[in-house]
Amino acid sequence: MTTQTGVKTQIAPHGASDLAHIVMTFDNNHHARALFGQFDQNLALIEQMLGIDVRTRGNQVTIKGDPLATEQARRALDWLYDRIEEGGKEPEASDVEGALRMAMAADDQLSLPTMDGTGRIAAAQIATRKRTIMARTPNQDAYMRALERAELVFGVGPAGTGKTYLAVAHAAMLLERGRIDRIILSRPAVEAGERLGFLPGDMKEKVDPYLRPLYDALYDMIPGDKVERALAAGVIEIAPLAFMRGRTLSNAAVILDEAQNTTSMQMKMFLTRLGENARMIVTGDPSQVDLPPGQKSGLVEALGLLGDVEGIVTVRFRDTDVVRHPLVARIVAAYDRDGG
Q1: Which residue, among 259, 314, 268, has the nearest Cα to 291 in the 3D structure?
Q2: One-character DSSP codes across 183-196
Q3: Is the pTM of this model over 0.90?
């Protein structure tokens, strides 16, 4: 039997069938119910994803099946229970899937380490007063750790991997902790040809449609009234890429989203805006370039030129990192196979 805070685990020796048998007992009945989910839906998801048998009796869970899969289930349940005990919300299906991804990655020698010295899941996190986000894949974990240590980070890969959301969340955390003075959000308005003067409304109204994903992430991490005040005070700034020339961006977290739609000159201009105590995050999907035919993507060029530059970290996401709807990952993989 192994014991840790709030959880007792019994692992029976393998029988003739070579199936493992693990019994987990959770001290807090209320937290155990939250862990299991309504009608034990979280446990049903674990059964489905790992192909094992998971049954409950009161605050006790019995896991039977393939030894590797049962151990992965134990790791995931252990980690999710810890999050609940630390004051986290009841796990949703996406949280359970994320915990299982991290637990399974620990057994893949090609993956980045996702376990601590005690054999428990060690996932990076971004925490603000409103919300705490935990890494759901090894590449998300690597990305979140890169955001913490590097001044310039490229996050590239398909839609739905969290690269933009996590960038905005990290910027919000830095602002809340006083490590920066402002957040600057930028995105090339390719659909408008960056001829923003021809669009109706003031500058905010002109660029809002192109920056909506960034706003959505901000409102998830910061209370709405504080976002509005920060926008009014210029603490959170909307800076169309075409209007950033000649500036030096200091004491700020600067995010360039949809960077695959920058030209070579635009990307060079943007990257050279980096000032003192600034963090720059560039996100995009090199497979989704909307530039005119024959126009080279500034993101693709930068990834080739800057790969070995000290102080720059590039994290590449794959279709297996998609954390939206599971169908999105299958759609991305289908397009990749077709070369589209």
Answers
A1: 259
A2: EEEE---GGGTT-G
A3: no
